[in-house]
Design brief:
Blueprint (H helix, E strand, L loop, with lengths): L4 H7 L1 H25 L11 H9 L4 H23 L3 H19 L4 H40 L17
Helix pairs in contact: 2-3, 2-4, 2-6, 3-4, 4-5, 5-6
């Protein structure tokens, strides 16, 4: 009863596009870090606030800032890779950390950055929801197929509620 989640993700645009947001976050955060560590004063609204804060606090210790940024950016690249392969955990963990990063962005009072962060958080969790629903539907269909092959009587459609329990 194995399902190729990666293939399913590629067929459903909402999930695929949501997973790709992790790569945008990582890429723009990398560009922001390069700009910050070279004394620039510009940044992309979608980039991570935590890397920008680290770059400011670690400007006297650039190697540590680079290692920190690499770990954080690498994490979001990994979440993108895993989400593209159908990992609900990647969506939830990465989306949760990006949501936490939004708290840092709130402190900047940058309306554009706050709006972009909120939109991306929405997209990430919408992708997670769609992946969860898709996985549930596929599992149900596979169970029904197994039952039909075994000659059991099946009910039409997925169950709408849990069966009653006798105490």
């Amino acid at each position: 009863m194995n399902v190729d989640k990666a293939a399913l993700v590629q067929e459903i645009p909402v999930i695929r596009n949501s997973a790709r947001w992790f790569w945008w976050i990582a890429g723009l955060s990398l560009i922001n870090s390069i700009i910050n560590l070279n004394g620039g004063g510009v940044s992309f609204a979608l980039g991570l606030g935590i890397t920008q804060v680290a770059d400011v606090f670690l400007e006297d210790n650039v190697p540590v800032a680079i290692v920190f940024d690499a770990i954080v950016i690498g994490f979001f690249l990994l979440m993108g890779w895993l989400a593209q392969r159908g990992s609900l955990t990647a969506f939830l963990l990465g989306g949760g950390l990006y949501l936490a990063d939004t708290a840092i962005i709130l402190l900047t009072f940058s309306i554009i950055a706050i709006v972009f962060h909120a939109y991306v958080v929405f997209c990430l969790f919408r992708g997670a929801k769609e992946l969860h629903v898709l996985t549930k539907e596929v599992r149900h269909a596979l169970r029904e197929e197994e039952r039909q092959q075994a000659g059991e009587v099946t009910q039409a459609g997925p169950p709408t509620e849990d069966p009653p329990y006798i105490l």
